[in-house]
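Mods, move this if it's the wrong board.
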Amino acid sequence: MTRREDITRLYELLGELEQTVGGKQKLKDCTGYMDWPDRGVYFFFASDEHRDAGDQLRITRIGTHAVSEGSSTSLWDRLRTHRGAKRGTYEGGGNHRGSVFRKRVGEAFVERASLNDEYPHWGEGSSAKRERRLDELEMERRVSDYLRDLPFLWLNVDDEPSAESQRAYIERNTIALLSNYQREAVDARSDDWLGHHSRSKEIRESGLWNVNHVDEDYDPDFLDLLRDQIEETSPV
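Not the wrong board. Structure tokens:
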């Protein structure tokens, strides 16, 4: 099958997942009290872009968690970090130094609006003191508003943390399949897509908020594993 046909199959499978779980979610509506699996893969979609082939929303970010042996990070832990804080000192904002997704989206906002003088330290280091985080709070809130409105699906894949886990395999190959980096574009992003302002060439050219695996070949057999995992998913 061609890459375009495999992409169509991927969207068909995720359409089946969406029907099974009762629809896409948005982070603004999610809490830790929901019935989250311990481990899984998530698929974020653009909120205002559709595939060339129809009315399906385009996938814009694929991710997982706990791919290092011994890691105890849960699926909700990762999604909550992307969502940001709902209360406390940084209410409405978050910590982009703990979420590459937040970091990349913030970078694009900074570049699009030429705000480098206002946010000269955005993305620096793995942590920051309170004063710097407060200085960056307005941008963190902007990032939160953007991410919390993106529709997403997640798939329960409850295997042990490992770089060779099924979750890592699905994540890696989904990114490689969808990426337009240095190849003929399928479902190319619109001119208005925020990622076009990214500092990362990989993001700009792949059409995804991902950097790793965008330049790799994909193994089409991963679609069979994805199908099997979706078939095992319990309806809501």
